[in-house]
């Protein structure tokens, strides 16, 4: 049986962006539920922004930052794989697929979590 030249640990880069998105998604919606239960949506901070809205925005921005950092790092890995010889970088396709996957995680974070800026939080 032939052993793969690509270490299995490199496969984590295929899902790392979506793991960060999922963690942010769960944190944001858990914060939404907790905030509704404890009345954070009626506690005002400054400029008419509630405590809950501020928390949701911070969680969205943290998720966006995490997924963007992962996308940047996977882009760097892909760039390095393209410039090295085949022996030094045996799987440039894997690095490309990881980069594309991380970009979809950034898009998922924007599409699914950005409405926390404008939608009503509790009823």
Describe the structure.
The protein has three helices and no strands. It is mainly α and 123 residues long. The chain has one domain. The chain is elongated, with a radius of gyration of 19 Å.
Q: What are the defining features of this structure?
A:
123 residues; mainly alpha; 3 helices; elongated
Q: Nearest-angstrom radius of gyration?
A: 19 Å
- Tell me the distance between the termini: 60 Å
* Low-pLDDT runs: none
Order of helices and strands: HHH
Describe the global form: elongated
Mean pLDDT: 88
Strand content: under 5%
SSE class: mainly alpha
Number of domains: 1
What does the largest sheet look like?
none
Topology:
Elements lengths: L11 H27 L12 H33 L8 H22 L10
Provide a brief overview of the structure.
67% of the residues lie in helices and 0% in strands.
């Amino acid at each position: 049986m032939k052993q793969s030249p690509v270490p299995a640990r490199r496969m984590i880069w295929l899902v790392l962006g979506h793991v960060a998105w999922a963690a942010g998604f769960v944190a944001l919606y858990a914060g939404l539920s907790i905030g509704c239960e404890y009345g954070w949506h009626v506690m005002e901070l400054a400029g008419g922004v509630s405590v809950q809205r501020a928390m949701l925005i911070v969680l969205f921005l943290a998720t966006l930052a995490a997924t963007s950092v992962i996308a940047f790092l996977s882009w760097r890995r892909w760039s390095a794989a393209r410039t090295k010889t085949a022996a030094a970088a045996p799987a440039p396709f894997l690095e490309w697929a990881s980069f594309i996957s991380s970009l979809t995680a950034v898009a998922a974070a924007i599409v699914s979590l950005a409405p926390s800026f404008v939608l009503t939080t509790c009823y």
